[in-house]
Amino acid sequence: MRSSGVALVCRVITSKSSHQYSYATFTSSFSLLCFEFHKNRPFSTVPRKDYELDDTLFLIRKMMRMRPHPYASEFNKLLQVIAKKKQYPVALYVFDEMRQWGASVNEYTMNILVNCCCLSKRVDIGFAVFGVFFKHGYAADIVTFNTLLKGLFLDGKVAEAEKLFKKILSLRLCEPDDVTILTVIDGLCKAGRVHTARDLLLLLEKTIYKPDVLAYNAVINGLCKTGMVDNALELKSRMIEKGISPDVVTYSSMIQGLCDFGRWKEVKNLLDEMVDHKIYVTVVTFNILVDAFYKEGNIKEAEDVLKIMKQQNISPDIVTYNALIDGYCLQGKMDKAKEVFDSITRNGLKPCIISYGTLINGYCKKGKVDEARRLFLKASSTGLQHTTVTYNIMIHGLFSKGRNADGWKLYKDMEARHVRPDLCTCNILLEGLCKTQQIADAFLFLRAMEDKELNPDIITYGILINGLCKDGKLLEAKNLLNELPSKGLQPDIKLYTVILGSLSREGCVDEAKDLLVKMERSGCAPDSMTYNIIIHCLLKKKEDDKAMPFIEEMHERGFSADAATSSMLISRLQGSNKDDVLLELIKKVVPKI
After folding, report:
1. Cα separation of 193 and 204, whole Å?
2. Which residue has the higher pLDDT, 356 or 512?
3. What predicted TM-score, i.e. pTM, was given to this entire model?
4. What digits encode the pLDDT tens for the residues 96-121?
5. Distance in angstroms (rounded) separating the CA atoms of residues 364 and 410
6. CA angle, corner 78, sides to 73 and 84, nearest 5?
7. Would you list the DSSP string of 155-208?
8. Which of 21, 153, 368, 563 is the least buried, fewest Cβ under 10 Å from its Cβ?
9. Residues in contact with 204: Cβ distance below 8 Å, sequence separation at least 6, in sequence order
10. DSSP letter, residue 384
């Protein structure tokens, strides 16, 4: 069922076989598809307390029993109601009932069903639905292909989406429209293929399929999000040359990109440009500025932007309030953050889960875990559904205060509520186990992570290696470090430094030197922290002679001793047995001595 959808399209479209299939075959085929769609997911045809959906289902079933049947368009209207409620499995289930009753269908019915499959990330079933309809004489249109393209991108099948787009063009399956071009370009950008999207845009400029402002905006936004702001500015100039006027979305993306790099003068130039071209700044643009100023610590500038918003009668939305809350949390001003949070309701809006999550995070970072916990429970009582992010924030807050039992209890609650843990969740829990020397349990949990198809990353292994070192299991830590390349992971400087610190504490100086060489060869040069940790560990063991070569090497690389290492080195000068060689080295690495 999960075979190439593109291949299926080509087969059914180029098929020379007859479309005269029996009604029973059509029904049987679709019943099999519905079975495939539902077999791995919990399903209820009637979600509780949704009276509108109940009425819709009642009306569809009543129409099925009518003779003659109402037109397909009437059924489609009701199917669309179900789809708009995001009850995609229900839509397919109901359609299967419609076919068994012989209800009328048309190409629009097919598009609704294909869309339901794609939005459920079952594009394979979407292609199969398309194939069944096509073989029964229903022709695909550009909406069908746009939906399938969108489904492939949503399901992460970027290469297949590219192939399908090329087939649409080369086989002239239909005439691509602006939505087709936008779907492909935006899909490529969101998949991290921004260069490919830009190349496609430039290629399409030379064809009859001219990209519109939305397509340019997608690429400009992609370039800005990946830090290529100068390329985005060049593309904006190019679109103007092509006679396409940038809009507020174009400018907002570039302003966000420039704010991310603190290029405030260019931000001002763009805002002036917007005024000159009579492009009105929206609440979205203002939100970008407010958020950027707060994150930079420029409170006055952020407040000035809010004043301008009021002067222009632009009401703050929930995103504005969330930015304000985040800004005050970053400043540690929790009273102000709570004041803004409380003002949301007074101004006719409702706090969203992001509002709660931001404030909870602020409280956790200030160590006010009980305040955070109360707010966490309040969010649930208002009917909001906690996300993986809010659970992660709260679990991390509990573990950071040593309340591990409460953290694990919240994790169990997360699982019970079918909120899927992510790698961040698992890393938080692993760190909690390692900090309490439950190393065996940590490795068991690692296996459980992998069983849930969560692939450990370099942070995961860093937590485990650090835990092993602190538990005195240096050999196991080294073995795990050496295994990382076979897992497709390259050790970073933090991991090497952890091992080097342990080697130094154990007095394994020659092995530490060998590891420094290995680091260099792997393209991971030691930094100031690496040398400071090695030297600090050796000085602590009063092995000054072993520390001296590392002090010399640190100086040669242009690094200085940090406060802790400097303090230990200076203490050596106060002893009765002064070493002139050591004194000269200390002068080189200790600032202002």
Report:
1. 17
2. 356
3. 0.74
4. 888 778 888 888 888 999 999 999 88
5. 15
6. 120
7. TT-HHHHHHHHHHHHHTT-S---HHHHHHHHHHHHHTT-HHHHHHHHHHHTTSS
8. 563
9. 181, 210, 211, 215
10. P
